[in-house]
Amino acid sequence: MMLDLGPFSDEKFDPKRWINSACQARHPQDSLEKHLVDLEMKLQMTSEEIAASLEEQSAAALLRVPRATRDIVRVRDDAVSLRHSVSGILQKLKKAEGSSAESIAALAKVDTVKQRMEAAYETLQDAAGLTQLSSTVEDVFASGDLPRAADTLANMRHCLSAVGEVAEFANVRKQLEVLEDRLDNMVQPRLTDALSNRKVEVAQDLRGILIRIGRFKSLELQYTKVHMKPIKKLWEDFDSKQRANKMANDKNETERFSSSTNVQQSVRTVSLSSWLPSFYDELLLYLEQEWKWCMLAFPDDYKSLVPKLLIETMAAVGASFVSRINFATGDVVPETKAFSKGLLDILSGDMPKAIKIQPKHLEALIELHNITGIFARNIQHLFSESDLRVLMDTMKAVYLPYELFKQKYGQLERAILSNQISGVDLRGAVARGVGAQGVELSETVRRMEESIPQVIVVLEAAVERCISFTGGSEADELILALDDIMLQYISSLQETLKSLRAVCGVDFAGEGGLKKEMGLDKKEATQSARKVETTSNEEEWSIVQGALQILTVADCLTSRSSVFEAYLRATLARLGTSLSVAVFGSILDQNQSHLVNDEGNGERSFVSRAAFDVAAIRLIDAPEKARKLFNLLDQLKDPRFHALPRASQRVAAFADTVNELVYDVLISKVRQRLHDVSRLPVWSSVEEQSAFHLPTFSSYPQPYVTSIGEYLLTLPQQLEPLAEGISSGDTSNDEAQFFATEWMFKVAEGATALFMEQLRGIQYMTDRGAQQLSVDIEYLSNVLSALSMPVPAVLATFLTCFSTPRDQLKDLLKSDSANQLDLPTANLVCKMRRVSLD
């Protein structure tokens, strides 16, 4: 059995663990005692071997110590000797340094003079060569050897740069420029032929000539000029088809009038949306062929030559492209198609005012933009090897025809939304005859409630259009438009609410509201009250029920606008993140384009994605707009920020107006019944003399207070449908019940306050009137208790003071129970009943 001594050298060696491990490694048939004995024997033998080896090695080391000591002494003597030798050498070098420094300085001056003389000699040679070249250049041109002529001009350019600004060679410099233009003109016809007929070698030689004379720009211009012609022909094919179709249409019209049968097949006009994909396909195929040919002919320049061709082509057809897009957007709507006009014409006011911008106009524009987007992605893939700046310039050129429309996007979207909101059916309520107000109110409320989801859908569609067309780069204009349109819509709702007040018969009832605005005097208010009194009880309740439904309108508007604003914030937040990555990623990659070229395809793919984002391209070229947009998107991170600030405030104001109207409607019947209660003759009536002992007052409450009580007790039944309608939505049933109870308490409190206001207006109260009024107050108190409402202390004081006999009233105020009374109210009752407290 071999022993592994490695574990014994470990600092964390554990003897017990080692023994247990050795025991576990024994053969199953060996006994444990025998295994331990063998293990002990091996350890002992190994230790003896180690001890013997250590003793042997120690003895050998002791024998080597004297020899090592002698070697150390010898090395030390050699080091001392070497130190003395080096010291002597250093002293000699110091002495030589003083004399050699002067020699080196002199040699440096001589070398400078030599270099100047050589430069002068070379300059003289260049001057002589320049003179010779200038005299022989015409012969070179006469020979027709263009490469030799290019070399000659390049040498002349080199000599001129060496000579510098010497007056004697000013004429030569002008001559060189003329000669370079001359050679350039000689190259152009041959270059045109080589490019047109795909002559690779000839094109390469001519490129070399232009490069030699510094005229690479001429190569770009000529290449673009030659290849733009077939592309323009593809572009003009659309006009050709349009003219052909127009002639065919005119011919059909002529045949239709001349023929006895009117059955003729009409020829449809070619639409831009159906023609543009085929144009892009042919253009892409042409560019792919040019890309492959240029890779062979101009391997150093194809990455910029072909994109330059596309950029110049889009610039050349840009005005025509914009015009075609404009007409294409007008063709989708019959009104604008009849005038052969488009979006830009409507915006400029060059159209009748009756013709408005419709969503179809912008949808047609987005369709064309999407078609261009497909072409742009293909171009991005084709030009993926080009420099990032070149690729971005190319993408910008491809989308250039849409730039004018994007700049006017805010006006377009605002006009579309305004027209759509104006088309929403929000007719105000019209005052009808008795019996029809409830129906009119219900229909108006229904139109209001149905209009809210319609408007929200319209606004959401606007957000989608903004993302689809501008990529979000016009999000700031969109927000302004949405805010203004929401204000327009809510203003329409407010106007409708004003018309509802007349239908509900509460023009005069608004506490501090319409009453002040309309300036109704007491006589007009009385006439309005009498008019309302003619309304039947059934119609009164239909008006109440219709008014309660207005609360659902306010609730729907509040919830829907809140949800839409949350949707808008989430959309803009995602947009801000994507735009930030695209814009700043593109800027970073432009600054580090050398890293992109050196580090492989991984980073190249990211750069291409960033550069392709059309919104990012627009924002990179418009830093001020980008800063404004990103500041707005950054504010969205604050939960307190409102994307539609003015609309949010107006929604809250609308809800308050609705609550005021509903309260006025619910309290109007109470207001009618309590009208002039303080002037009822019963309060000042005197007890009639009779031979019989009869009650001096009615033991029943008067009709005005019983009608109020019945109304308040019936009100929960009217609020129940409202609670059910609210609970069927997102609100819980408990919250809906609380909402209904809150309104019931609000009306009951208002009725109590109006009643107490009338009581305070009573000037004189007899005992008979006091007893009758105490019955009325007790009835109303019982109604409040039935509604689970506490009886106000003022009303309880009125009840106590009026139910107390006049001769006991003074003692009541002086008793201990007076602490439970409202003293100002008690004093007022004493004044009414002519009780002196002195």
From TrEMBL:
Protein keywords: Coiled coil, Golgi apparatus, Membrane, Protein transport, Transport
UniProt keyword annotation of Transport present: yes
The keyword Coiled coil is annotated on this UniProt entry: yes
Transmembrane segments: none
A Pfam family matched in the record: COG7
Domain of life: Eukaryota
Gene Ontology CC, one term: Golgi transport complex
BP GO annotations: Golgi organization; intracellular protein transport; retrograde vesicle-mediated transport, Golgi to endoplasmic reticulum
Coiled coil: 29-56
Topology in membrane: Peripheral membrane protein
Location in the cell: Golgi apparatus membrane
Similarity remark: Belongs to the COG7 family.
Protein's name according to its UniProt entry: Conserved oligomeric Golgi complex subunit 7
Native source organism of the sequence: Rhodamnia argentea
Gene: LOC115742651
